[in-house]
Amino acid sequence: xxxxxxxATGSMARRQAWTGATLLAFLLLVAVKAQSGGFDSFEIQTMxxxxxxxxxxxxxxxxxxxxxxIDLSVGAQMVxxxxxxxxxxxxxxxxxxxxxxxxxxxxxxxxxxxxGLVIARSGxxxxxxxxxxxxxxxxxxxxxxxxxxxxxxxxxxxxVLGSGTEFWPPLVGLAVPGLIIWYVxxxxxxxxxxxxxxxxRQAAFLAGVPALRAQVTAYAIGGLLCALGGLAATAFTxxxxxxxxxxxxxxxxxxxxxxxxxxxxxGGVGGLLGPVVAVWSLYLIPAIMLARGVDxxxxxxxxxxxxxxxxxxGGLLRRNGRKT
Amino acid sequence: MGETREALRTRAVAKxxxxxxxxxxxxxxxxxxxxxxxxxxxGAGKSTLVKILTGVLAPDSGEIEVGGxxxxxxxxxxxxxxxxxxxxxxxxxxxxxxxAENLRLTGTGAADVLERLREMDLTPPDFRxxxxxxxxxxxxxxxxxxxxxxxxxxxVLDEITAALPSDYAERxxxxxxxxxxAGGSVLFITHRLLEVQEVCDRATVLRDGRDVDxxxxxxxxxxxxxxxxxxxxxxxxxPAAGSTAARPTxxxxxxxxxxxxxxxxxxxSFALHAGEVLGVVALEGQxxxxxxxxxxxxxxxxxxxxxxxxxxxxxxxPREAVRHGVALVPSDRQEALLPMRSVRENLALPLSGRRWxxxxxxxxxxxxxxxxxxxxxxxxAQDEVRRLSGGNQQKVAIGRWLVGGxxxxxxxxxxxxxxxxxxxxxxxxxxxxxxxxxxxxxFTSELREVxxxxxxxxxxxxxxxxxxxxxxxxxxxxxLNAAHxxxxxxxxx
Amino acid sequence: xxxxxxxPGGAATGQGQQQSSFVIGVSNTLVGNxxxxxMICSVKAESLASGKVSKVxxxxxxxxxxxxxxxxxxxxSQGVNAIIVNPSDPDKLxxxxxxxxxxxxxxxxxxxAVSAPEALVVANDQVAYGRLGGEWLAKTLEGxxxxxxxxxxxxxxxxxxxxxxxxxxxxxxxxxxIVKEVFTGWDYSxxxxxxxxxxxxxxxxxxxxxxxxxxxVVNAFKTLGxxxxxxxxxxxxxxxxxxxxxxxxxxxxxxxxxxxxxxxxAVALDALSGEQVPRETFLTPEVWDLATxxxxxxxxxxxxxxxxxxxxxxxxPHTSYTPEQLFxxxxxxx
Amino acid sequence: MTxxxxxxxxxxxxxxxxxxxxLAALVLANGVIDQGFLSAAQLRNxxxxxxxxxxxxxxxxxxxxxxxIDLSVAMTATxAAYVTGVRAADGTALAILEGLAVGxxxxxxxxxxxxxxxxxxxxxxxxMSAILTGLLTVGSQTFLKGAxxxxxxxRELGGGTIVGPIPWNLLVWLLLGGLLIFGLRRTGLGxxxxxxxxxxxxxxxxxxxxxxxxxxxxxxxxxxxxVAGILIGGRGGSVDLQLAGSYLLPSVAxxxxxxxxxxxxxxxYTGTILGALILSVLDTMLNVLNVDEAVKQVLYGTIVLVLAxxxxxxxxxxxxxx
Lengths: 324, 493, 334, 322
Ligand SMILES: Nc1ncnc2c1ncn2[C@@H]1O[C@H](COP(=O)(O)OP(=O)(O)OP(=O)(O)O)[C@@H](O)[C@H]1O
Ligand SMILES: Nc1ncnc2c1ncn2[C@@H]1O[C@H](COP(=O)(O)OP(=O)(O)OP(=O)(O)O)[C@@H](O)[C@H]1O
Ligand SMILES: [Mg+2]
Ligand SMILES: [Mg+2]
Prior knowledge:
The structure holds four protein chains of four kinds. Chain C is of the alpha/beta class.
């Protein structure tokens, strides 16, 4: 009995180890940044606000990957909701903007649910469905807003981003949905179903998990978060931008952050804190290189190397952990 | 007939997978308070029937009644609500979730499960452990406990004892008997006919997707079952297991000296000689898994050494073992098969592994064809091995090495989940391998096999070889004692 | 907001500095694009040639306004005296530009304009780019025929401006029809492939206007073995070579110099030195074809440079560096 | 229970026939939209643009069959072509060899990291892509400075015609594509690629040196991408840093439309070829149709989705799964 308790504690520790390592790496980066270029509230605000949209996308990707899927359209969804909200919010009052934001969030959830439904019903792999829907959403974004433009109310921007060098509002804006979704994932049967689905689809079905519902739920949560990402982009830039390239970059970054944050791409494993911290770390790497005066062209290469190394070392640690 | 309301009744249930007919027409009835055996050769359709009864699959045609009322389950959860609770052939606990989460998933009370485990005289694991980290037999028992916690009217057990050591199997029987006493029914699938004699009231035999015989076990007997299962095909006679000589005479093929893995396995020494089938018996977790992994090159030794025909194995990669002629047939088919590939590719894998260049098609066709014929592999679903029945999958796993060639065959619980007919085929196969001058090291959880197939037997306990005895002298009682550590090596001699 | 914290080495000391001590920041959001890399080199070259700059800090990564705002804020934190920014959006950077201005930093938007009144703008006149090319094409076709418009990235401001200028020019020629309009995404190989598709279709094509994806389009004629039609492109090195040396091909290069970065730097340094500079400096593109500007074509072809090298390497009278300094791509202290 | 004889070749896959049908339908639709499409010139054009995609997608197929993926193919193609272009002065043969060597090195690094150090393939190749972007950007200003014009031979190979509708690059493809098909079906290595994707552990226990096979796969993939990059560069005449960027997503899409499982273990190159042809014809159709960019993207996405769905439907009908 004693032994099994110890084994269990060990395995718990291992499960949290990745999140811990991510946190540690992040703190290290913060220290280096503070040393080489300062890390005052202005910097923190820059970090939190400019990664807010990406943070939401990463949470979205995280939930979907935990559920055994992958979504290559998160960036395109963000672009779509960015354009949609910027177009609708232009010249409107704060109140109307809030209503539009609520509507967009709902629409995002519906869009996500639809994606999930298509995947579950068609049997076409996630990666190809979302590759295709990514094109569709980018096309729709161009349709909604053919050129960069649109706008939003100043109060809406302040609400999301804070004023002055405040950085609490965006932090809270990320943490609240993050915590709610974390609660849903970890403490409700719907969330458990998502983990089960990602862990082993067949076994989940045998255990009586309603696979369709779990999949649709995961994608609906993802869609909702992508809409939040779009709204954050609108608030941050004060308008919309239909160009698809930004969306694709964001998608790939979200996948990288999810893996760096300890979610297994095979599904069923991982939490939400790690990926968010990973997004911030990915932000800090170029910032530090800028401060250190590294040629930015090398910067891109260094970033690639760092990502690979982190996953490599993490993988080695994980493997060693499993052996003992 | 029909005076009492049946717990379960099927009429003309049929199911096909594309061109493969799994069930033609099955009529089955299970009475309340009865333990009913469902028997049949590999691929007869037992698992398919279980899946239909528990809502995993929908039948193509036919009717199902539970407690007298017609049902059409949409999902396993639906079946569970109607009192039909399965324990499937493959583990159904989610590996990444903790035990507690797994229980929450099916709405099972953790306290209830703890209670069931205690009833079965098992030490419950920490429920915060991810299921994937628990040993397989314990997982199966958890699966069972979870099913019991739902207080099923009909408990469906698909080959649950196949992966269990005999002491665990005993506990399952106790559970089945208690269920019967409480008025519930059990549908029990097994390939071990002794178990049928031991616990079952009635038995239904399937052959080629039909029910061919239902009888009261006490009135039947093993012969009747076997005859029904196999139809016209007779069980091949097993050539008598080797010499009665206690000491083998052939060349030393495999020599193991003071082998340890730094963990459970300690100072194991023995030798396997040409022309010999050497049995290994042990209770669950006595180091036999580690021993086989080490010998197969899948795990590195911490101490001691392994030599094949006098050449030392470094044990860096299974390839090295294969090159030296040591081949492993793992117990878990998930570790042996390429589920999406054809029977042919699965069988020819060792050949492909040897040469990256063009395949010698004629040679391959000849070798593969011969093995398919020799093992009588049912190739109706040959394009994808995952569609074969469990037993046929096992044959593919062994057949691979007949194609590839070897000197020493390591068999880990080879006959788990295999029907009587096939078992006898395999026994004969192992004997003929030995007669060719090669060697077999086999671990078995079915002690009855030892005197039937082996020349000698090693008993493992606590990571060491606790004893060695000539198979001819080994009866189950003796082996069990040894395996429990009651007998020291010196006493056996 | 955000102007209340002072950063070390910030603009507080900026205005009255002596020679060779300005720090210049550069922000660009398209990596691996030859034109943009050359633009950054021209900033470095001009900084070096001016002798007034001690360091050039470059923020360069793929992204949109979101990434660029973050980069600009990073540069502000680094205490630069001036920022040369190739804006990813005309409006979205305004708040951060204002923050920079509040700290006394000179911001120059190069290549494309921004609407913030605090920023200086040094840009190629993109509407004129479209118009001049369109006029050349129409004249070459003698006022009639089918033309194809090969645009850049859908939604990009420069693309819209050029489209505007181009259609404006052609509206004066009723007999010229725009039969196809495609977006190349400013991707040379994709543009070449699209040209293959279009030239193969049954629509007759008499001329092609491109938003700078030019030499692969010219190559498509050769690949298909079709007679060349006139093509308008930009001052890309290889395209200039084609105009000069491909038999039977007529084309015009409309300049869109990457040296705009150097121009922006010169303007920024003037402003830092306290000179009065106009808020907007627009470079009007030049049209080079073999008939009228053979000398320019000859002088601005660099056989040893890559195909996409923007051939107009200096912009007189603004830039002061030598072509060699640009080619070296080294800033002060590197 | 009669033992059926093991067959040499798998049954002709019905889902492949469906792909052929879809391709035919697309070609006909194109013909209706534009008469010019049903001509020898257009056939040649289709082949010309499909070949590089089919080569890159071939490499992608190999990676996907082992359960991996290579997101660095586009940058690999670009890097190889760039090096070939810059080194044209060294002589054609040497320039091409140098370009291929770039592919070899990239493949080795990817392969070793993924197979030996077990870095997640997606992350590794994404990282490699970033690394290559950085190195090429710096290189174009420093160690890879120079004219990026392709040697004449490469131009001919990438865009020239042998006779009638047959471009030179088809020859390259027939050679490499044939090798791929043969290699996957009829060689030990091919079998092992499927084996690894199907069940890594089982392959290992059966004595397969999984890591070497994986390294071979990533090297082959990078080499194929390098060849494709050189052909693309040859077709355009000169090379730039974004040369093959637009080939990344289509390379994955072609493989998946062609029935290769993203999880590994099943699929093949024949399907990928059809997938690549379908995508190119679709692309041509959208180029020729004078529709808005927005509509174009929506159409493209929808068609890819429908194709994948049709494929899955037909392959399921064959096996009778639910
Ligand atoms: N997006 C977020 N923003 C802020 N805090 C978060 C976010 N996501 C999670 N957290 C916090 O971080 C902690 C760890 O989160 P994580 O999801 O890694 O836990 P977990 O492994 O799922 O937890 P458990 O093992 O208890 O089920 C949580 O307790 C939660 O309070
Ligand atoms: N998903 C599937 N697709 C195609 N054929 C299948 C599938 N599942 C089972 N079969 C076929 O149906 C037949 C019956 O299989 P089933 O698994 O029911 O046998 P079984 O009696 O449980 O055998 P075993 O004792 O070996 O477990 C076999 O011929 C098998 O190959
Ligand atoms: Mg966690
Ligand atoms: Mg079965």
